[in-house]
Fold:
Amino acid sequence: MSATIKQGLTADTVRELSEARNEPEWLLERRLDALDALEDAQLPDVIQTPGRRWSNLTELQFGKLVDPLNQVDETERVTDEGIEVLDFETALDEHEDLLREEFGATLDPETNYLTALSAALFTTGTLIYVPEGVDAEDVKIRTEMRSRSLFSHTLVVTEESASVTILEAIGDEGPTEDDEGRYFSNLVEVAAGPNSNVQFGSLQDLSSDAYCYTLKRGDAGDHATIDWIEGNYGTQMTRSDVETELNGEGSESQIVGSFFGHEDQHFDVNARVWHNAEHTTADLVTRGVLDDTARSVYEGVQDVGRDAWDTSSYQRENTLMLSDESEADASPKLIIKNHDTEASHSATVGQVDEQDLFYMTSRAISPEQARNMLVEGFFVPVLEEIAVEEFRDDVEELVQQRLD
Amino acid sequence: MSSDQDHLKTTDTEERFDFKKDSEAAYAAEKGLTEETIHAISDDKDEPDWMRERRLRALKQFQAMPMPTDWPGQPDLSEMDINEIVPYIRPDIETRGGVDDWKDLPDEIKDTFDKLGIPEAEKNALSGVGAQYESEVVYQNMLERWEEKGVVFMNMDQAVQEHEELVKEHFMTDCVPPSDNKFAALHGAIWSGGSFVYVPEDVTVDMPVQAYFRMNSEGMGQFEHTLIIAEEGSEVHYIEGCSAPKYSAFNLHSGGVEVYVGENAHVQYSTVQNWSKNTYNLNTKRALVEQDGRMEWISGSMGSKATMLYPSSVLKGRGASDNHITIAFAGEGQDIDTGAKVYHNAPNTKSTIESKSISKDGGRTNYRGLVHIADGAENSSTAVECDALMFDNESTSDTMPYMEINESKVDVAHEATVGKIGDEDIFYLQTRGLDDDDAKQMIVSGFIEPITEELPIEYAVELNRLVELEMEGSLG
Structure:
């Protein structure tokens, strides 16, 4: 697989990207290291059960999709007082030491083939730096991709007792003319200092011919909280991994996911937490709806390490199927090595409740309207977790668009 | 192991096949499973050619398939060198396992029998010593009673001869083909012994069919095959294994169980297995369930070094149902990777899976399950419930269910919880005068009750007793 992409991808390409952006030598080195790593790197693991592989990432035609030197995006960044929300080039000028220390510290660029590709080729990105004790709200990064491929990197660093709420949204200008698709890749690292609080919301609404890969990983310090909200609505295929390492004592994480697939969309969404310290808490909530021939694959992992005394860990995944042609695959996993743990997971798959429908239609609501109301209601537990109003509105609107 | 190997060197079975194990080197030279091994087995059993062909085909499949190595969190099989194991199979070909004398049994096994409070005569039967007579009496009595109803219950080897057509049609064809996995292929090549159960249309066998004595007395060994055919409207409860540890000289147990549940038939398969702690227990068990048929799997997995076992039901006919109740107990150095698989391939099918596990002293339990609902299997429902109890911080308990849902008109629920034994519960019981161990014992008994209440009383009692012994750390 790597052969296809490697043909057009050389160290010169990477140097050209780096030079055009006046990057320091160390960043170029890291890009080149990531490029080298492509040789041996594997695609992300996908779930396999007897006779089948749940997602086919090899269908990504990198040769066609990836055009490293022609990446164009328009990104709007909304910041708040007392914090830094900077594009990567500006961040390199103003906070080079911080970038040098934190870039790739939480998320190893050599995790897999797609992360390495992203680390070698990224052209857009944002640093969000929240100094000690500062409380920031409504930070927004709205990106529109305007090229066949776009590689992005987001780095969030919060100092002690800081707090920030972030919404990152990705969209594009519509389907490509030749219908051959786009590829958007986004790596997100969150380093949450002691007692800090990060809510990172992500909304993906790319065109129906696009492919998306995203890996988001947080490192929670002592008593820190990292909450993720992940909304996937667009693309023909999305692979999304959201992960938190609870490395600090008393740290917490919530991962809230929502998706709504229609036509022949394929979502491979994954939520994982590692409890590595004492008194940590995690809550994983994912709700998805599938229509037409759409398909979802879900893996949730709660990994409780040997030293994670007094752990609480919960996971719920619910999928609603609106069509007989759709498919929902789920595997919520518990890996427990410390017995001082309260852990549970549950998963359900089902259709719109017949009795609810009957009740509503008997109250003179049309069957279609009743169904739509029930679907909207299904997303309420997810919507309730979203701190940013604008984000909540966006999700509600996307759900409604799907239903119309 | 050395005493076990000594035993192997002296069985006359081995002499018959002219094994030369006088030195380590000669022993090594015999490693590997070849076509000659298959011919030797087949000759010895005087098998029809078709069975010999199936064995040879399975051997080819076994040789072609790689070891499973890429399952997330799978038990470590790296120390299990198949080439080391294969020579151990030979003595087992002859239905003559066990040792010649009670006193030759490993102390661990003898202690267990003593602690279980099993009478001397029964101990002998269980350990395969001089059980031939007693066992045959039991067997014959049962046989007569069933024969009147047309029921067949016999050794699988015997069934190949006496019920050739039935066996030819059902043996490792549709249910567990050797191509299913590497160990099913191994099993297909070298299987020996086991049970054949045939229940004719509309016959209800109202007492459990037990392969309890027989299994040991005839030394059915480590590659036994169980084939159960329940015709339309029939009903049978088959119980296999014994709740006492089996004497095992072998490193690998790779059994095969195939159950054909006819229309509207009902089969319950119960097993309490407690393998010796050097055993790799890698089995394939599957039921094919026709319209309105019902399959129940009740199993207790104890013992073994590593177990990989996921009894499975294929719900082929409309309205077919499955019920799994499993319990796993892993102590020191044990990895019990077990669960359930259900394929809903028809409308209105239903399954429930209830899985309990206990891990202690560094043991690992894992629930690995697969529920597949095919497109068109409308109005199907499945409910999976897994509960894991952990005793200490050295132990590990994992849950890895997989759900593949291709149909929208379904009701799918999975739930799992993991927790430690409740400090408050223990405290409460202690204030009522129980000591710490008794309190824990009582909590565990309550925890596994859903399993024990499904078993006939003698099995339930022994399962409880086994769990007690495991908890006292006085077993093995």
